[in-house]
Amino acid sequence: EVQLVESGGGLVQPGGSLRLSCAASGFTFSDHYMDWVRQAPGKGLEWVGRSKKNTNNYATEYGASVKGRFTISRDHFKNSLYLQMNSLKTEDTAVYFCAVGIAVAGPNDYWGQGTLVTVSS
Amino acid sequence: DIQMTQSPSTLSASVGDRVTITCRASQSISSWLAWYQQKPGKAPKLMIYKASTLESGVPSRFSGSESGTEFTLTISSLQPDDFATYYCQHYSTYPWTFGQGTKVEIK
Predict the structure, then answer these.
(1) Nearest CB to B49: which of A63, A106, A112?
(2) φ and ψ at residue A56, rounded to 5 degrees
(3) Which 3 state secondary structure label does DSSP give A31?
(4) What are phi and psi of B100, to 5 degrees?
């Protein structure tokens, strides 16, 4: 069974940093693209970025609003995906989901439950 | 970046109604479009991908179509479980983007 479990959310001050984790199980971690998607309170979905799979050397892509501030990485020993968030702004306040496409190429058919990040002084 | 314009933002309908949601891309995305359903407090659920391919387990009352850069999600006969918010997302070129969402409410 595919499972994605996010952790690491919490309250952080503007300008601060936070690292989110996504523990993955039930599939071959290195063989799949993985995404971070966020949702501000009461707002729509926003694609944050992607870690590509092994055949793409785990290259990363980012959305415009986070590029240069956020970094996505993987730990293959722990089967975990990470989102390092630096220079946080109040507008980064959101629930952060990790997601993976297992049976489909492109979009994501499995999602975690999300972790809430609040950026506030 | 490719912009996805989704309409309407809110839709009031009754059980049994035929419902249509539209998503327009700012440039060609071929058929690289997905539709997600999201209920309050839950993660999104993939419903349709590649514009018209139904995800496994999704009821056949859901369908997707395309005409150029305009994409449509249709629910042929709305059921109580379908009241939710729906999002389109393109996955043509990076960065990917979502539409603003359509909330389907009970009339």
Answers:
(1) A106
(2) -110, 20
(3) helix
(4) -75, -15
**Model confidence pLDDT, tens digit, residues B42-86:** 999 999 999 999 999 999 999 999 999 999 999 999 999 999 999
β-bridge mates for residue A83, sequence order:
A20, A72
Interface of A with B in 40-99 (CB under 8 A): 44-47, 49-50, 61-64, 97, 99
Dihedral sign (CA A94, A43, B76, B15): positive
Q: Which long-range contacts link A59-67 to residues 24+ away (Cβ below 8 Å)?
A: A61/B94, A61/B95, A62/B95, A63/B95, A63/B96, A63/B97, A64/B1, A64/B95, A65/A91, A66/A92
Of B32, B49, B98, the CB nearest to A44: B98
d(CA B72, CA A119): 36
Task: Give which of A111, A113, A115, A116 to mutate to test B binding, by max B Cβ within 10 Å.
Answer: A111
Residue A83 is which amino acid?
L
- Other Cβ atoms within 10 Å of A31 Cβ, number: 10
